[in-house]
From TrEMBL:
Transmembrane segments: 52-81, 93-116, 139-158
Pfam families in the cross-refs: DUF2062
UniProt keyword terms in alphabetical order: Membrane, Transmembrane, Transmembrane helix
Keyword Membrane attached: yes
Domain of life per record: Bacteria
DUF2062 domain residues: 34-169
Protein name: DUF2062 domain-containing protein
Keyword Ligase: no
InterPro entries linked to this entry: DUF2062 (IPR018639)
C-alpha cells in the first residue's frame, strides 16, 4: 500500500518492471544515436584526418569540467567552422560525457595533489575559498598533464579506425565478380 501511495504503482514488482523498461529504452536510444552518428561519419566524404581532428576537438571540449555547457560549445563551434565534421564532434560528446570522464578527472586530481603536496596557502580570509583555490590549482595542473596525451591518443585511434573502415569499404567496392560466360567461338 505504501508503494502505491508514493509512486502510483500497485506493487514493488510493477515499479521494478517500469524502471527496467525505461532504462532499457534509454540504453536503446543511446546506442541508436551512437550508431547513427558513426554511420554518418563513415558515409561522409571527409578525410580521416578531418574526422579525427573533429573528434579530438570534441574530446577536448568534453574534458573541460563544464557539464551541460560542452554541448553548447560544440554547437557554436560547428556553426562557426563549417569544415569540421559535426557528427564526429557530437559522437565524442556522446562517448566522453561527464560520467565517463570522471576517472580522468580523478587521475588529474591525484597528479595535481602529488605535485603540490598540500601546501598551506592563505590568500583569502575564508578557509572555504582557500580550499577551493588549492583544489582548483591541483585540478588544473593535473588536467594540463593528463588531458593532452589522452586527446592525442583519441586522435590517432579514431584516425586509424576511420582509415581502416574506409579502406575496407573501398576494397569491397573494387572486387569484380567472375563471370562464367565463355567468349570463344
Amino acid at each position: 500500500m505504501t508503494v502505491k501511495k508514493e509512486t502510483g504503482f500497485q506493487s514493488k514488482r510493477q515499479l521494478f518492471h517500469f524502471y527496467m523498461f525505461t532504462t532499457s529504452k534509454l540504453k536503446e536510444k543511446i546506442w541508436y544515436k551512437l550508431r547513427r552518428n558513426m554511420v554518418a561519419i563513415l558515409k561522409s566524404h571527409d578525410s580521416d584526418r578531418k574526422v579525427a581532428y573533429s573528434f579530438a576537438l570534441g574530446t577536448f571540449i568534453s574534458a573541460f569540467p563544464t557539464p551541460g555547457f560542452s554541448g553548447i560549445i560544440v554547437v557554436l563551434l560547428a556553426i562557426s567552422f563549417k569544415k569540421l565534421n559535426k557528427f564526429a564532434m557530437i559522437l565524442s560528446l556522446l562517448i566522453w560525457n561527464t560520467f565517463t570522464m570522471m576517472p580522468l578527472y580523478w587521475i588529474a586530481g591525484l597528479i595535481g595533489s602529488f605535485i603540490f603536496k598540500q601546501s598551506e596557502t592563505i590568500l583569502f580570509k575564508y578557509a572555504l575559498l582557500n580550499n577551493a583555490f588549492q583544489f582548483s590549482k591541483q585540478f588544473l595542473i593535473g588536467g594540463a598533464i593528463v588531458i593532452p596525451p589522452f586527446i592525442l591518443l583519441n586522435y590517432w585511434l579514431i584516425r586509424l579506425i576511420v582509415r581502416k573502415i574506409k579502406d575496407r569499404k573501398a576494397n569491397q567496392l573494387r572486387v569484380i565478380p567472375k563471370t562464367s560466360v565463355s567468349w570463344s567461338c
